[in-house]
């Protein structure tokens, strides 16, 4: 008995030692010399880095609203606490000015900072792990070419055990790919380029793929849609009903490159930002590759009810300037608000009077009975940079009460989406806090 | 350089493409009849017509006008609907302080243009986006009806 006990104890010690080594062994640095040798130098490198930095949309997370680009400080409210994006300008004290090439690559590929500490996966290194070392270095070269900004990000507010960074090592073992994305020889060059852009750069799945219990992207439900920070990232799998399976290539191309597609409405919220900061800067060929790849992702039926009604009765009975006589006779608060504050830009038939960007017809946001994104857009407004100047919708958070915004949302969903919805003032109050 | 057709006249303006049409009209061209109210598409004071359709010039980037012809309050009296509206406006003395009235007239004449005999409800629908702090709404409604009969 005693022997057995000792054996057991020994086994526990060995396992514990193994785990401890796994958790606390200093992280090693990758060898980046081969990649360094392959890269162009000077402006050519910086230009390549600029393009890739945009494609990876670093600015979206590493900049606060109205803040200096790449100076960090943006808050991420997660179920376990709040963390803040760091300053990634080359400032030596508060940014990454002292980071070596190898340290930068290690951060992107493994989620480990300069001091060997684990980073949190709010930083989408599980996606960037699939980036080539050359591309990672080009991004660094671009970031280091920008003016440095002194800005200390606020301290993370995380409770135990999530404030123990080494815990992330288990997570990394399970969920982080261990090398750059390998091209699939069975697919075209265009598809492979699209896969690389979507997976390693644009990291679409970080928002559009649901997360599992361990908060990792659940690739068994790839692109099935998810909700985060008060917005829905819609299903973008090729499912015809709940995804983008019925979109034409042209519609996808336009939506990604301009933030608006005829018959599909406009990108707002985080997707609006993704287009504005990132996608609209990509070459048409790259956007086409993304379309090819995204369309090839197998359909995932989601339970989300944001299903577009092609010809809602109230909408088809309207002209740009007036609802049908029956429609107008409803005469509720929502209709009154819409006619006073919204109709002159959006139009009653959803075509968008002021600008095509104001077109609502076919948009999932006005077809989602939950009204999740609709309430957010009404509260926060929307912006998009276009070749014809900046298109904007004002924010109405301070102009209307929760009761008014709830009534307006229900009206819009009924009129533009043919949906029965039951959005309450409490829903609006909750949305305001997000 | 951006080419515009304003009140029947071809003009080119050297402005950033992002500049709101309202600024171009008022500050660059000097057509100050169109008013700045809220600047965020909420009051209607800045309404002008593009190919006869009412738009809010305060949030319309000038580059998005394209080839559409712009009509402002300075020239709307030369269109049949605009003439009728302006006559009725004077006849019924609609105007109080006047600040919102360029926008009201631009919206009302666009309404009459597409709907020669608007009902009360049509008027509500078309005019709700034009706010009047002086509360001239009843006279606006009456004047549109009178113009429709003219
Ligand atoms: S100034 Fe344009 S709508 Fe108020
Ligand atoms: S007349 Fe004064 S604001 Fe309308």
Automatic annotation (TrEMBL), chain A:
Residues annotated as binding heme c 3: 342, 345-346
Residues reported to bind heme c 2: 204, 207-208
InterPro entries hit by this protein: Cyt_c-like_dom (IPR009056), Cyt_c-like_dom_sf (IPR036909), Cytochrome_c-type_DH (IPR051459), Membr-bd_ADH_cyt_c (IPR014353)
GO molecular function: electron transfer activity; heme binding; iron ion binding; oxidoreductase activity, acting on CH-OH group of donors
Domain Cytochrome c: 44-147, 189-298, 329-416
Zinc is among the record's keywords: no
Cofactor: heme c
Name of the protein in question: Mono/diheme cytochrome c family protein
Automatic annotation (TrEMBL), chain B:
GO molecular function: 2 iron, 2 sulfur cluster binding; isoquinoline 1-oxidoreductase activity; metal ion binding
Organism name: Phyllobacterium myrsinacearum
Domain 2Fe-2S ferredoxin-type as annotated: residue spans: 1-76
Protein name as annotated: Isoquinoline 1-oxidoreductase alpha subunit
Keyword terms, alphabetized: 2Fe-2S, Iron, Iron-sulfur, Metal-binding, Oxidoreductase
Enzyme nomenclature, EC number: 1.3.99.16
């Amino acid at each position: 008995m005693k022997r057995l006990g000792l054996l057991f104890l020994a086994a526990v010690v060995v396992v514990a030692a193994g785990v401890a080594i796994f958790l606390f062994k200093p992280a090693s640095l990758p060898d980046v010399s081969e990649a360094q040798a392959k890269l162009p130098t000077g402006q050519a490198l910086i230009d390549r880095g600029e393009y890739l930095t945009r494609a990876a949309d670093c600015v979206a997370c590493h900049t606060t609203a109205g803040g200096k680009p790449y100076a960090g400080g943006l808050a991420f409210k997660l179920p376990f606490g709040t963390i803040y994006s760091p300053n990634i300008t080359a400032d030596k004290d508060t940014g990454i000015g002292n980071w070596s090439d190898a340290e930068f690559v290690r951060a992107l590929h493994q989620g480990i900072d300069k001091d060997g500490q684990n980073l949190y996966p709010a930083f989408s290194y599980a996606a960037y792990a699939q980036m080539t070392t050359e591309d990672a270095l080009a991004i660094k070269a671009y970031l280091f070419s920008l003016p440095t900004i002194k800005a200390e990000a606020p301290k993370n507010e995380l409770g135990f055990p999530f404030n123990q960074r080494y815990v992330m090592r288990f997570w990394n073992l399970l969920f982080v790919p261990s090398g750059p994305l390998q091209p699939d020889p069975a697919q075209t060059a265009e598809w492979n380029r699209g896969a690389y852009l979507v997976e390693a750069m644009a990291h679409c799945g970080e928002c559009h793929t649901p997360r599992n219990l361990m908060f990792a992207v659940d690739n068994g439900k790839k692109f099935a849609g998810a909700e985060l920070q008060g917005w829905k990232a819609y299903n973008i799998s090729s499912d015809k009903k709940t995804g983008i399976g019925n979109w034409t290539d042209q519609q996808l191309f336009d939506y990604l490159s301009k933030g608006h597609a005829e018959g599909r409405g406009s990108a707002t919220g985080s997707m609006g930002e993704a287009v504005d900061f990132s996608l609209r800067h990509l070459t048409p060929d790259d956007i086409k590759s993304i379309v090819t790849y995204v369309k090839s992702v197998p359909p995932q039926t989601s339970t989300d009810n944001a299903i577009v009604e092609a010809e809602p009765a109230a909408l088809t009975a309207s002209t740009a300037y007036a609802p049908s006589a029956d429609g107008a006779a409803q005469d509720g608060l929502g209709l009154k608000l819409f006619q006073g504050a919204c109709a002159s830009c959006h139009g009653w038939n959803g075509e968008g009077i002021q600008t095509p960007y104001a077109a609502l017809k076919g948009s999932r946001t006005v077809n989602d009975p939950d009204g999740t994104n609709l309430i957010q857009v009404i509260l926060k407004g929307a912006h998009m940079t276009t070749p014809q100047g900046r298109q904007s919708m004002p924010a109405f958070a301070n102009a209307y009460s929760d009761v008014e915004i709830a009534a307006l949302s229900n009206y819009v969903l009924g009129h533009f989406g043919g949906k029965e919805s039951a959005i309450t003032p409490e829903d609006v109050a909750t949305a305001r806090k997000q | 350089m951006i080419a515009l057709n304003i009140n029947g006249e071809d003009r080119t303006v050297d402005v950033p493409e992002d500049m709101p049409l309202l600024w171009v009209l008022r500050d660059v061209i000097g057509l100050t009849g169109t008013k700045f109210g809220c600047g965020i598409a909420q009051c209607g004071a800045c309404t002008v017509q593009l190919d006869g359709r009412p738009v809010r010039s305060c949030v319309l980037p000038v580059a998005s006008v394209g080839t559409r012809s712009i009509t402002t309050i300075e020239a709307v009296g030369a269109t049949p609907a605009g003439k009728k509206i302006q006559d009725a406006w004077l006849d019924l003395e609609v105007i109080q302080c006047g600040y919102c009235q360029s926008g009201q007239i631009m919206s009302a004449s666009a309404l009459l243009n597409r709907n020669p005999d608007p009902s009360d409800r049509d008027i509500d629908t078309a005019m709700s986006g034009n706010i009047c702090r002086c509360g001239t709404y009843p006279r606006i409604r009456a004047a549109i009806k009178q113009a429709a009969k003219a």
